[in-house]
């Protein structure tokens, strides 16, 4: 039987891994092209590797500024400005350095654009994880002790109605998926996944 619940829970991690791989690949492709452009412009080969960092690293810094601004409820306009401007600069130099021909220029334009998109997707994944991890921890039921059996659900946080609903749903429907549980309970998928992981780690659900 296909473990649908485990697959759904692993999707965010797999997405982040894929995006990180794309970002690293795009950075290296753009880095190599920009370094060659720097050498052609007369920059010392010994220092030419710094030129791509001045361009593409600021692109990444812009995304980090956007993330910081969103977490602090500040305007992300500066971060977006840096991200857009240096994506444009990187794309321009990649295209200029490419051989003649529309296919070649389009091919050289892909890495910096892919880097911009993948970095922003990675920041979205981080924002989602941070939002989940910032959820306050519920208090433990004072009547439960370490020796209390799992069947009494003492590992379920006290006064956490959502966790109780999730637990009840998966006990009544053990083959249910996260998506089906979210639709049935009227909750967000990330909320279901978070409580499901907590309940599984506590040994309440298998």
Automatic annotation (TrEMBL):
Residues annotated as signal peptide: none
Residue ranges of domain HTH iclR-type in the record: 166-205
Alphabetized UniProt keyword annotations: Membrane, Transmembrane, Transmembrane helix
Gene3D superfamilies: Winged helix-like DNA-binding domain superfamily/Winged helix DNA-binding domain
Protein's UniProt keywords contain Nucleus: no
Keyword Lipoprotein found: no
Any GO MF annotation of the entry: DNA binding
Membrane-crossing segments per the record: 46-66, 78-97
Pfam family for this entry, one: HTH_IclR
Coiled-coil regions listed: none
InterPro entries: DUF2637, Tscrpt_reg_IclR_N, WH-like_DNA-bd_sf, WH_DNA-bd_sf
GO BP, sorted A to Z: regulation of DNA-templated transcription
Protein name: HTH iclR-type domain-containing protein
Organism: Methanospirillum stamsii
């Amino acid at each position: 039987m296909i473990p649908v619940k485990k697959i759904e829970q692993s999707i965010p991690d797999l997405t982040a891994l894929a995006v990180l791989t794309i970002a690293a690949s795009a950075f290296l492709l753009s880095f190599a092209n920009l370094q060659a452009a720097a050498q052609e412009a007369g920059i010392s080969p010994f220092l030419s590797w710094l030129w791509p960092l001045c361009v593409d690293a600021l692109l990444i810094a812009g995304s980090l500024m956007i993330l910081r601004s969103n977490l602090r409820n500040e305007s992300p306009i500066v971060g977006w400005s840096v991200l857009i401007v240096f994506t444009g600069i990187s794309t321009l130099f990649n295209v200029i350095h490419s051989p003649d021909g529309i296919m070649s220029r389009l091919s050289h334009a892909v890495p910096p654009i892919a880097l911009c998109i993948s970095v922003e997707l990675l920041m979205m994944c981080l924002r989602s994880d941070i939002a989940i991890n910032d959820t306050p921890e519920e208090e433990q039921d004072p009547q439960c002790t370490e020796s209390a059996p799992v069947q009494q659900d003492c590992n379920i946080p006290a006064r956490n109605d959502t966790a109780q609903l999730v637990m009840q749903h998966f006990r009544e429907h053990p083959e249910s998926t996260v998506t089906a549980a979210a639709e049935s309970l009227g909750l967000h998928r990330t909320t279901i996944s978070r409580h499901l992981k907590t309940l599984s780690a506590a040994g309440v659900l298998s």
